[in-house]
Design goal:
Blueprint: H1 3-22, E1 24-30, E2 33-39, E3 43-48, E4 51-57, E5 68-76, E6 82-90, E7 94-101, E8 104-112, H2 124-135, H3 146-150, H4 161-165, H5 174-187, H6 191-201, H7 206-219, H8 224-237, H9 241-251, H10 260-267, H11 273-283, H12 287-297, H13 301-309, H14 315-324, H15 332-342, H16 345-349, H17 356-369, H18 384-398, H19 402-415, H20 419-427, H21 432-447, H22 450-460, H23 467-475, H24 481-490, H25 495-503, H26 507-520, H27 528-538, H28 549-556, H29 561-573, H30 576-579, H31 582-594, H32 598-608
Helix pairs in contact: 5-6, 7-9, 8-9, 9-11, 10-11, 11-12, 12-13, 13-15, 14-17, 15-17, 17-18, 17-19, 18-19, 18-21, 19-21, 19-23, 22-23, 24-25, 25-27, 27-29, 28-29, 29-32, 31-32
């Protein structure tokens, strides 16, 4: 998010908070008649017996410098007499409402405007508790502060992902000020001190300062009872996720055994799982059992931390890691190595016979290990050769459909990688005979025409396309161009289709795909799914000079940092004569002025200077 966009986002949050705080309603019954006064940010209403008799609408927030608003209307009683109703509303520190009937004051009330950041918002911990009580797990990863955190109508990240990818520079002296305010809160827990701490927490993201916060809390000599009470107060009142994270870390520096059930419930949401695990490990009991429960319950980013820190002590735990650990394929590459190691995949596959469930689980782990983007992939797994050999042995029994066959295809791609890559592997843990034996064992599966027929038939079905069918069809060099374009019309935001078309390297097909995106996508306001599709196009346009230039412009103007960087990389590889036009130059200039990332600004300036 650029500096300009961040300021806009903060102003929107401030405006929402102000609107909620100044929204007041006063009601009084006068001789059987209901008089109601409503105060809002830009308007006030006088309502008598359900009918609006007067209103004042402000054209802008600047009109609030006028401290008072007057409203008036007529009330007719049963005897037919008419009475004038006068209302005076306003004030800066306190919001006053005075209601008169003729000249008699019938109401004079005053409410202090405090603008407490946790007021008028749904509290996060109770929100999670309700969901867990109803479903025994988290079924909706949204949080009440999503609009505050991401911005209204902006793409949402998977819970917990922001903490992993955030690369914003720390705010100078942020943590020193936060600790100073929190110590004041501990000594004098008042609304004022709590508000000061709360405001400082949400000024920036706790994920940026997590390690520093843990270090300072560990070094500080703080009263344990006060620490626990204020952490619990923050958890009870928190309407912002960063406050929940801060409070969980603080609670971890106390004897929190009494609150482990509460922590566990919060930890079922992937946004908070790593923080809860820290607190339980630091101040709880029965730590491994609690973490194991989280391993089996969370499905997203939280599972990564849970599997990382759990100790698989029993055969049942190891079997679960091998069969269920990577069932969420979206995160399989993050946890495949951990599941294989802690579940002892090499030992499990050594058995003469294994269950279909274990074969399927092993397949998911192997796919994760073979993912090219996985930094903890197969080259870091010491038992790779043995595991792949035994997996191919069991494939003779269990390889029945495309899903079963797909990991064999991935193994083939791995074994037939560039010789330069294999030269390095052979210097490390691999032996040439191991590679050769695997290639020979794999060939009978690849020679079977069954798989190409299954793939082609799957793509002709009207059901949702399976990415495995596309990959298998491409491996056997089947002409599926017309099928892909036909499916694309039915599933215009299926990112697997975009990836498959870009992998064909067919320039005419890629031109058609770019034209499709330009005409069918609501540029520049893209959904998350459409942004993912656009990423698959942009990241592979480097070798197709001049193709998809309108999409490059959309990417440069996007709030998606990854898209912008991909677009900059494409322009770097294209001749400036192809893209040197006013719209692209304006987009690059905007990046140099607004983005917070120094490398991105430097990259854009470098392109402008060419």
């Amino acid at each position: 998010m650029s500096l300009k966009e961040e300021l806009k986002h903060e102003m929107q949050n401030l405006k929402r908070d102000m609107e909620k705080e100044v929204h007041k309603v006063w009601t009084i019954d006068y001789k059987g008649h209901c008089i109601e006064v409503i105060n809002q940010m830009k308007e006030e209403f006088l309502i008598i017996d359900g009918i609006t008799v007067d209103e004042n609408k402000r054209k802008s927030l600047f009109s609030l410098i006028i401290p008072y608003t007057k409203l008036s209307g007529t009330l007719t009683l049963e005897d037919g007499k008419k009475h004038k109703v006068s209302v005076k509303i306003g004030g800066y520190i306190r919001l006053n409402c005075i209601i008169k009937i003729d000249h008699e004051i019938i109401m004079n009330k005053s409410e202090k405007l405090e603008f407490l950041p946790w007021e008028h918002k749904e509290k996060i911990v109770p929100y999670i508790q309700k969901q867990v009580q109803a479903n025994h797990r988290i079924v909706d990863g949204q949080l009440p502060d999503d609009d505050y955190f991401f911005g209204t109508d902006k793409p949402r990240l998977d819970p917990g992902l922001f903490d992993i990818i955030v690369n914003e520079p720390p705010t100078p002296l942020f943590m020193n000020r936060l600790m100073k305010l929190f110590k004041e809160q501990l000594e004098h827990p008042t609304v004022k001190t709590r508000k000061s701490t709360y405001d400082q927490i949400i000024f920036d993201h706790i994920a940026i300062y997590r390690d520093e916060l843990i270090e300072q809390l560990g070094q500080a000599e703080l009263d344990g009872h006060a620490l626990q009470q204020e952490a619990l107060w923050l958890l009870e009142h928190a309407a912002h996720r960063d406050v929940v994270k801060f409070a969980i870390l603080v609670l971890g520096f106390t004897n929190c055994e009494e609150y482990q059930d509460l922590l566990y419930t919060i930890g079922l949401h992937d946004e908070f799982t790593p923080y809860v695990i820290f607190a339980i490990r630091n101040g709880g009991k029965g730590v491994n059992d609690q973490i194991w429960s989280l391993v089996q319950s969370v499905q997203g980013m939280g599972k990564i931390t849970a599997i990382e820190l759990v100790e698989a002590k029993t055969p049942e735990m190891k079997y679960w890691l091998l069969t269920k650990g990577c069932e969420n394929r979206k995160f399989a590459d993050f946890i495949a190595l951990r599941c294989a190691t802690k579940g002892e995949l090499d030992v499990a596959l050594y058995e003469k016979d294994i269950s279909k469930e274990l074969y399927t689980g092993a397949a998911m782990i192997i796919e994760g290990l073979l993912d090219e983007s996985n930094p903890d992939g197969i080259d870091n797994y010491p038992y790779a050769a043995a595991v792949l050999t035994r997996f191919l042995y069991h494939a003779h029994t269990h390889c029945e459909n495309l899903e079963d066959f797909y990991p064999l295809l991935k193994i083939s791609e791995f074994l037939h990688a560039d010789e330069e890559i294999w030269e390095e592997r052979l210097k490390e843990q691999w032996k040439q005979h191991e590679r050769t034996l695997l290639q020979e064992a794999l060939q009978p599966f690849l020679d079977n025409p069954k798989w190409s027929h299954l793939a082609f038939d799957a793509l002709k079905q009207d059901s949702e396309v399976d990415f495995r069918a596309i990959k298998v069809a491409q491996f056997y060099q089947l002409d599926i161009t017309s099928l892909l374009l036909k499916i694309l019309k039915k599933e215009p935001s299926n990112s697997a289709l975009f990836a498959a078309i870009m992998e064909t390297k067919d320039i005419q097909l890629i031109k058609e795909l770019c034209a499709f995106a330009e005409t069918r996508f609501p540029l520049p306001r893209l959904t998350i799914e459409e942004q993912e599709c656009l990423e698959f196009i942009i990241q592979d346009l480097q070798e197709f000079e001049g193709v998809g230039l309108p999409l490059i412009q959309v990417a440069l103007e996007s709030e998606n940092e990854r898209l912008r960087w991909q677009a900059l990389t494409v322009l770097e590889n294209w001749s400036p004569s192809v893209w040197n036009q006013p719209a692209i130059q304006d987009a690059l200039k905007t990046i140099t002025k607004t983005t917070k990332d120094k490398e991105e600004r430097r990259f854009a300036k470098q392109l402008l200077s060419r």
